[in-house]
Amino acid sequence: MRPKFWSDVEVCNLLTSLHRTMTEGKALAICEAQFGSDRTPSQSALNRYWVKLDSAFGPNDTHAVRRLNKRRNG
User: Fold this and answer.
1) Rounded Cα gap, residues 1 and 15, in angstroms
2) Is 58 left (phi over 0), alpha (psi -120 to 50) or beta?
3) Measured on CA atoms in the order 18, 31, 67, 53, is the torsion positive or negative?
4) Contact 14/39 with Cβ under 8 angstroms?
5) What is the pTM for the complete model shown?
6) Residues 59/7, Cβ–Cβ less than 8 Å
7) What are the helix (H) ranges across the chain?
8) Tens-place pLDDT, residues 45-63
9) Average pLDDT in the chain
10) CB-CB contact of 11 with 35 (8 Å)
11) Domain map of the chain by residue range?
């Protein structure tokens, strides 16, 4: 199941790029500052998304954004 913010490409790309670089709280604060509270997911939704990124790309993959975009675009 995809998160509700999956179709919001800007938010999804931002949160993917922040994965493994900072805490969830800091990532959500950046997201809210850039996109507002309406487009910012909850902390639990972000946690579930980051766990899925780890399972799909591995916990040490630093190129998740590029690989995710490649999957999305075919």
Assistant:
1) 17
2) left
3) positive
4) no
5) 0.76
6) no
7) 9-18, 24-35, 43-57, 64-72
8) 999 999 988 887 776 655 6
9) 85
10) yes
11) 7-72
